[in-house]
Amino acid sequence: MSTFGNIFKITTFGESHSKAVGVVVDNFPSNFAIDFDAIQTQLNRRKPGQSDITTPRSESDTFTVLSGTENGKSLGSPICFMVPNQDTKPEDYKQHELIPRPSHADFTYLWKYGIHAASGGGRSSARETIGRVIGGALAEQILKLHKVEIIAYVSQVGNIKLDDSINKTVSRDLVDKFKTRCPDEATDKQMEELILDLKNKGDSVGGKVSCVIRNCPRGLGEPVFNKLEAELVRAMLSIPATKGFEFGSGNF
Amino acid sequence: MSTFGNIFKITTFGESHSKAVGVVVDNFPSNFAIDFDAIQTQLNRRKPGQSDITTPRSESDTFTVLSGTENGKSLGSPICFMVPNQDTKPEDYKQHELIPRPSHADFTYLWKYGIHAASGGGRSSARETIGRVIGGALAEQILKLHKVEIIAYVSQVGNIKLDDSINKTVSRDLVDKFKTRCPDEATDKQMEELILDLKNKGDSVGGKVSCVIRNCPRGLGEPVFNKLEAELVRAMLSIPATKGFEFGSGNF
Amino acid sequence: MSTFGNIFKITTFGESHSKAVGVVVDNFPSNFAIDFDAIQTQLNRRKPGQSDITTPRSESDTFTVLSGTENGKSLGSPICFMVPNQDTKPEDYKQHELIPRPSHADFTYLWKYGIHAASGGGRSSARETIGRVIGGALAEQILKLHKVEIIAYVSQVGNIKLDDSINKTVSRDLVDKFKTRCPDEATDKQMEELILDLKNKGDSVGGKVSCVIRNCPRGLGEPVFNKLEAELVRAMLSIPATKGFEFGSGNF
Amino acid sequence: MSTFGNIFKITTFGESHSKAVGVVVDNFPSNFAIDFDAIQTQLNRRKPGQSDITTPRSESDTFTVLSGTENGKSLGSPICFMVPNQDTKPEDYKQHELIPRPSHADFTYLWKYGIHAASGGGRSSARETIGRVIGGALAEQILKLHKVEIIAYVSQVGNIKLDDSINKTVSRDLVDKFKTRCPDEATDKQMEELILDLKNKGDSVGGKVSCVIRNCPRGLGEPVFNKLEAELVRAMLSIPATKGFEFGSGNF
Questions:
Q1: CATH code at position D113
Q2: Which of B107, B237, B239 to mutate to test the interface with C (most CBs of C within 10 A)?
Q3: pTM to 2 decimals?
Q4: Do the domain assignments include residue B29?
Q5: Is the ipTM, as predicted for this complex, more than 0.90?
C-alpha cells in the first residue's frame, strides 16, 4: 500500500528512474492559501548532491501541481504534485544483469514481485520520500496555525553523539548551517571526518536523528491502536533503512 | 476521499480545468505485460465530442504513465496515469461571477468547501471519470484471464426502452456501432431523435444503463457489509448524476 | 469484512445459532447520556414473531452492554452490545445433512468458506441486523440533536403500491400501527391478504421500502467515491435480499 | 480506533471495570480446527497475580466464544471472544473524586473525552491487552503451519541486561520458568531483587523485551508505508507504556 493517513492522506508514486515521482494529498483543508515556496524549500533541504557526504545524484526537484488548487488556493479536492526524474541513466542499469546488492531491498523486491526496476533503487529509492516531504510541508502549514514547531537534526553518527541539551534551543536554521545536519560545530566536524574516512574506504555508517516537537497539542492520537507514538513510529520506520525509534527523553 | 477499493485501489485526481486529471492504481499485479492500447481504446470510448448528442468539449485524452511500469511490465508499485487537460478556457469561467447552476453540484461544493473551481465543473466534472476508466481498463485485463466479460449499454432514454432479451447476445462491438450506445437500430434512432429534440429546446433527459457480466466467479464479495452488490452499487452511485441501481434481472 | 463506517464505525458479529449476536460501536461521542430505552424500542420494532405475516422465531432480543459506558454515559471507548440467541434448536439443523436451499446464501457460503453453520441461516441470518439496528439507534440519538428525522415504510408488496404523497405527513408512529408497516389502511389490508395468500401456498413475495429523511444537512458525504447516495446505497444493499435502490423522488 | 490489521483484523473492546473485555477477530481462515486450549494458555501467561512482582489483581480470565465457530471449527465469520471482569471493586474508584495520577493516561482521557471511567484504568488498563493476546494466539495457529516461531523475553530491567547470545537457543518454556521472564537464572535473580527493592520503596522500573522470530517468510510486509518493521512497531507502541523499538540485531 502506498497510502498513509486516516483523514489527511498521502499516496506516493514513482520509482528512481520512472518518468516522475510524486504524491496525491487528499483531505487537505479547502480555501487555504498554500505557501508553495515553503514546499520548495523543504524539497531543497531533501535534495541529494548538497555536499560531498551525500549521494551525488543531480536533480533540480522542482514540482508541478497537477490538480487541487486554483489561484494558489486549495479547492478541497486531491492535490497532485509531480516531480520529474531527470538524472536517469538507464544505461547504468540493465535488468538482465541485475545482481541484488547485499543488505539492499533488491532481492526482496525480486522475490516478492518477480520483477525489479532496472535501476538499482526502483521503488525503494530514497526519491520516493519526495512525496512525503511535499505532504509534510503541506501538513506543516496547518500545524503552524496551531503554533506547532518540528525540528529534526542528526544527533549521532557511528559512535559520535551530540548531547540532547540542545533540544531547548535548536532551530531549523541552525541545523541547516551544518553539512551533517548536526547542529554543533565540533560534533559536526567529527562526524564529517568519520563519514569521509569511511567513504574513502568504500564504506558507510549509521546514525540517529533526533526530533523536537514544540507546542504539541494535548490529546492527539487514539487511545489504543493509533496512539500518537504508534502513528509517528509507523511513519518513521517506513523510511528506507530506518530501524529504531524512541519516544520521550527519559533514558535509563 | 478519492480512493476506491480494498486491495486493488484507485486514487483519482484532477478537476475540469486543472493541469491534468489522472489516477494512481495501487496493488495491480506485478510482472504483468500491460496492454496500453486497450486502455487508450477505453479512453476513446469515454471521450466527449464523439457525436452531436454529447458534450462538444474537444480533448485527445492521451495518457502518460508516470510510474509503476518498465518496458511495458508492471513493477508491483503504484502506477500513475496522467491525462492533460487541453481544452481549458479559463476565460469562460470567472470565479467572482460564479452563479451556481440549478441541480448541479456547484452550490454544494461552495457550501462545503467555501471555494469552487472557477470552471463550472471543477472536481464534479465528468473528466474525473478518466481515472476510473483507466483503473477499470487495467482491472479488465486481469478479469479477462478469468474469462469475465462485462458489457454495458444504454437501455432507456426518457420513456424509450430496450427489452433485456438482448442480454444474451450483446457485445461491446455491437454497442459501439450506435451513437446512443443502445444496441438496437430502431430504438437507437428513436432515442437520438428524442435527445436532439430536447437539445434543440435547451433541455436534456435521463436514462438507464444496463450491464451484463458473463462468467462472474462464484463467491465474490464479502458476506455482510461488502457484498458484491453493495460494492458494485457503491461504485456506480459515485458516478456523477447516477441515482439508482438494480441488481439481477428479476422484476415485478 | 464485518465493519462499516469511516469515523463512526460498527463491527457486527454473530450467527443465527451462535451464543449471541452483537455489535461493537466505535467512535461514538463521549460523555453522552445514552437513551437505552430508545435502543430497545428499535430492537422491538425489528423483532420477528410480531404478527402472522413474519417469521415465527421467538426471541426477547434484550441486550447487555459489555463495555464503553458508565452510569449511562458513553466513555469514548468502543461500546459492545451483546444479544443472546435463545430460540436455537440445533436439532433442527444437522450439518452433514445440509442441502443448500435454492436462492439462498447457503451454497455460496459453502463454496466460499468450505463450511456452513449447521443452522440454515448462519451468518446470513437476518439476526445479523440486530447489530445494525443498535448502531442505527445510537446514531439516531446524535442525528436528533441536528433535527434529522428518518422514517421508513413499506410502499410496495408485489404489485400493490402506495403513492408517495404520504411522504410529507408520514410518521414512525403511523407506520407502526400497521402489520405490514405500510401506513395506509386500505393498502395495508390488501398487502396482508396477498402475503397470507402466498404464504398458504408456500410462497413469498418481494416489495419496496421507502424512506423519508427530513432536515438532512447540506454537504454530507464526499464529492467523489463516498457520495451520500453511494454510502446509503452501500449500507442498504448489504442487508440480506435487498437488490435495488433509488435516490430522490424524480421518476420517469 | 479500536481495530488493528488490514486483512486479518482485530477489534478490541472493554475497560478495566466494565462487564467484560474482549475482541472481535475478523477474516480468520474458515474451516480451521481452533486449538482453544492454546488460547487459554496464552491468557494464563498474560494474567496478573502470578507472582509478587506483578499487579495483584485476581482474575480467572476464562473466555466465552460468542460467535464465529461451530463444533470447534471457524466459520469464516467474525469470532467474538468475551472475558468477564470479575475483580471489579467500584467502591475503590469514585468518579467525582478522580485525581489524575501523574504520568498516567488519566488526565489525557479526561481532556480528550470530557469523562473518565471511574476505575483508574478504564480503557487504558492493561486488561485491554486480553483481546490482543487472544488475537495473537489465533494468528499463531496459522503462523505455525508455516513453521514460524515467536519467542519474547525480558532482556533488561533498569540497568540489568541479558546478553542477546541467548537468542539462538531461547524457548518459550525456558522463559516461563522465571518470574521476571528473563531466561537466565542469575540475571532473573538480580532483576527480581531490583524490582522488589523498588517496590518496597513505592517505586517501579522500566525495562526491555526482546523478541526472536524464527522462520519468518521472505517478502512479508509492504514496500513503502506498511513495511514489516513499521507494522510490528505500530503494534508494539500501541501497548500501554511502551516507548521504544529496535529492529534487527545490529547495534553500534
A1: 3.60.150.10
A2: B237
A3: 0.94
A4: yes
A5: yes
